[in-house]
Amino acid sequence: MFEHLDAIVLARIQFAFTVSFHFIFPSFSIGLASYLAVLEGLWLKTGQQRYLDLFKYWLKIFAIAFAMGVVSGIVMSYQFGTNWSDFSDRAGPVIGPLMAYEVLTAFFLEAGFLGVMLFGMNKVGKRLHFAATCMVALGTLISATWILSVNSWMHTPTGFEMGANGQFLPGPSWWAIVFNPSFPYRLMHTVTASYLTVAFVVGGVGAWHLLRDRGNVHARTMFSMAMWMAALVAPVQIALGDAHGLNTLEHQPQKVMAMEGHFESHPDGAPLILFGIPNSAEKRVDYAVEIPNLSSLILKHDLHAPLAGLDTIPDDEEPPVGIVFWSFRVMVGIGFAMLGLGAWSLLARFRRKLYDWRLLHRAALVMAPSGFVAVIAGWITTEVGRQPYVIYNLLRTADAASPLDAPAVAASLLAFVVVYFFVFGAGVWYILHLMAKPPHAGETGVKRGDTGPIRTAGITPGPTQNPGDSDVLPRRKEDAE
Q1: Is 192 inside a domain boundary?
Q2: Which stretches of sequence are listed as region Disordered (predicted)?
Q3: Tens of pLDDT along 428-455?
Q4: 156-193 b/e with 16+ CB inside 10 Å = b?
Q5: What does the alpha-carbon distance between residue 259 and residue 242 come to, in Å, rounded to a whole number?
Q6: CA Rg, the chain, in Å?
Q7: Cα separation, 480 vs 450, whole angstroms
Q8: Is residue 144 domain-shared with residue 36, that is, in the same domain?
Q9: How many other C-beta atoms can be found within 10 angstroms of the C-beta atom of residue 129?
């Protein structure tokens, strides 16, 4: 049944499917790790129990999201060798060391302190536990830094030399590779998106519990913190997105042409097309709703600045305009919706109605998953807009794939779809189950197993002073049973 399908298209779909699943969890865990550090820091500074309760409440959710992010990321690494062996062979000398640096720095840092963060609150001092939480948060940021450096290099490759066998080899300075032209913009834009994603999830959970119990102190704290984040960071994210767009215009102009829907060049100022249906066959946007000259003002800061269109690009180098055009609008639309909700929360706070306006709470609940949609839409805009290249202007996607038949790729794709929806669907359901429960005083945090490690010999440890502690091991085997 797969004989007439394109193996390269199937390989691209498989990687897009797995990376979309994976991207959801790191975008959540990066921001959530920093939020946990803030909560624990506030608890240490103020001594207020509500911050500790919220820390333990979100720590359970973080543990699951972090685990699913690690597992889903491992699968993608294997695909470099199975579906994209030519890419791995040619680009390996550059991207291989960068990904190894992630393991040597971020993974080791997280692995060293994650156990202390999850299970060590009653085992180590408060300050040492807070340091462990900060190290985990730092590890997630370092991981994002290396991965986004690799991804950015594929968009704006610099600092390399071409080997005689067609390999991309590191040049005299690794810094030119790591700090390639698009890396700073992509890093700031993506990390800020992660923080906003977590802010709207936390705000949505807080709004959910406020709708059920307006007097819940923990829900009030969550909602207030999240709305501060939305109000202050959403405008920053829009500014960062604008800077990132200008950088993209400089280095990847055809991606911006596809985002804007500019099939034709505009020598006297380009319109901003708000909506429409891109028609790649006829090289136009049907039913376009546009504002004259506004695109030139945004991209060139001049109403009458000329902008080139896709008519200056060979047809075989055009990205899929329809996908890029609409994914970009989804991302931008959600960004402005976040800005609007943040401004609404400021008005409610100014009128001392932040916990009383139920319509605001319902809007925050609806917006809870918006960050995930925005980051996936942004990733689609970035990656599909780079096509038909996997390394921009240097290595085409068709030349990077492994010599596989379509049935082989399709079979693994179907297996991934089934397994992912079953495994990660169960994980997401459990996270939602935890979120549905209201936070309360005396949250227990992450619990160890009831019996601890299995022992075949030796003395079973006795009970600690606090039988209700989540870290307590049973005194006897009979107690565990």
Answers
A1: yes
A2: 442-481
A3: 899 999 899 988 876 676 665 545 444 4
A4: bbbbbeeeeeeebeeeeeeeebbbbbbbbbbbbbbbbb
A5: 13
A6: 25
A7: 6
A8: yes
A9: 19
373-285-266 Cα angle (round to 5): 110
pTM for the full predicted model:
0.87
Whole-angstrom distance, CA of residue 244 vs CA of residue 262: 19
Name the nearest CA neighbour of 371 among 13, 26, 63.
26
Q: Which tens digits make up the pLDDT trace of 106-128?
A: 888 888 898 899 888 888 888 99
Cα–Cα distance measured from residue 148 to residue 79, given in angstroms and rounded to the nearest whole number: 18
Beta bridge partners, 286, equal 277
Compute the Cα dihedral for 317, 318, 323, 326 and give only its sign. positive
**Cα–Cα distance for residue pair 224/79, rounded to 1 Å:** 42
The label of the residue with tokens 């608890």 reads 43
**How many structural domains comprise the chain?**
2
337 and 479 housed in the same domain: no
In a domain, 373, yes or no: yes
- Euclidean distance between CA atoms 158 and 171, whole angstroms: 9
Give the residue numbers spanning the domain of 111. Answer: 7-258+316-436
User: Which residues have C-beta within 8 Å of that of residue 481, sequence separation ≥ 6?
Assistant: none
Give the CA-trace dihedral at 273, 257, 12, 102, to 10 degrees.
-110
pLDDT in tens, 307-353: 998 989 888 889 999 999 999 999 999 999 999 999 999 999 999 99
Task: Please give the Cα distance from 138 to 109 (Å, whole number).
Answer: 8
One domain, residues 115 and 157: yes
Cα–chain center distance at 313: 31
> H/E/C letters for each residue in the chain?
CCCCCCHHHHHHHHHHHHHHHHHHHHHHHHHHHHHHHHHHHHHHHHCCHHHHHHHHHHHHHHHHHHHHHHHHHHHHHHHHHHCCHHHHHHHHHHHHHHHHHHHHHHHHHHHHHHHHHHHCCCCCCHHHHHHHHHHHHHHHHHHHHHHHHHHHHHHCCCCEEECCCCCEEECCCHHHHHCCCCHHHHHHHHHHHHHHHHHHHHHHHHHHHHHHCCCCHHHHHHHHHHHHHHHHHHHHHHHHHHHHHHHHHHHCHHHHHHHHCCCCCECCCCCEEEEEEEECCCCEEEEEEEECCHHHHHHHCCCCCCECCHHHCCHHHCCCHHHHHHHHHHHHHHHHHHHHHHHHHHHHHHCCCCCCCHHHHHHHHHCCCHHHHHHHHHHHHHHHCCCCEEECCCEEHHHCCCCCCHHHHHHHHHHHHHHHHHHHHHHHHHHHHHHHCCCCCCCCCCCCCCCCCCCCCCCCCCCCCCCCCCCCCCCCHHHHC
